[in-house]
Design a protein that fits this description.
199 residues, alpha/beta, six-stranded mixed sheet, two-stranded antiparallel ribbon, 8 strands, 26% helix
């Protein structure tokens, strides 16, 4: 799932959310923020019911508002430009939708990294925030993350399991080998496999 952090002027953050949601035309967006008491609030612009929200899981894009420390690109919503450069800064939004290239922003957002410190993992040579900054400056790729999902995603009870590069490739190769022998399988198509343990 792609994730984008929004910081700055609250009114501009709301306008950016509206503009990005309109640009996505029917794809699902979740907005995650906090209320004044620090409780997490999740909204889904354009969705009319809980069923609509649940039916759109996982979302195509998550927009995180407030001061969360994530290893994800940031759109700073400010009317006045600032001199300081944030390592995770992807774009600055001043409220002018006509001059905002939502498609470019969306094309540069990548899947949420696992939020590990260098001590927790470090297989890429840095922590997840450092890798995210390197992805944004073009010196690294999302696939450089050991836990990058690649072409395989395994969910256990709805939660994504962290796969390393070797397990991901092993599962992908095994499944492709098995599926290629099945009548009706089309190479290159998206496949869902569900495994339910007996009780």
């Amino acid at each position: 799932m792609k994730c984008l952090q929004l910081s700055g002027d609250v009114d501009l953050v709301r306008r950016f959310i509206t503009g990005m949601t309109e640009h996505l035309e029917g794809r699902s967006v979740l907005v995650v923020g906090t209320d004044p008491a620090g409780r997490i609030i999740i909204t889904s612009p354009g969705r009319m019911s809980v069923h609509d929200v649940l039916d759109s899981m996982p979302p195509d894009l998550v927009l995180v508002t407030g001061t969360q420390e994530l290893a994800a690109p940031v759109v700073r919503c400010d009317r006045e430009p600032r001199e300081e450069r944030e390592p995770l800064l992807l774009a600055v939004y001043s409220g002018d939708d006509a001059s905002t290239d939502f498609q470019d922003i969306l094309s540069r957002v990548f899947g949420l990294l696992p939020q590990k410190t260098k001590e927790d993992c470090g297989r890429c040579g840095t922590d997840c925030r450092g890798l995210a900054a390197a992805i944004l400056d073009g010196s690294r790729k999302p696939g450089d993350c050991y836990y990058a999902p690649g072409n395989v995603e395994i969910l256990q009870d709805g939660r994504r399991m962290e796969l390393g590069d070797f397990p991901s490739r092993a599962v992908e190769g095994t499944l492709k080998g098995l599926l290629s022998s099945l009548k009706g399988y089309r190479a290159g198509s998206s496949v869902t496999v569900r495994l339910r343990e007996g009780s």
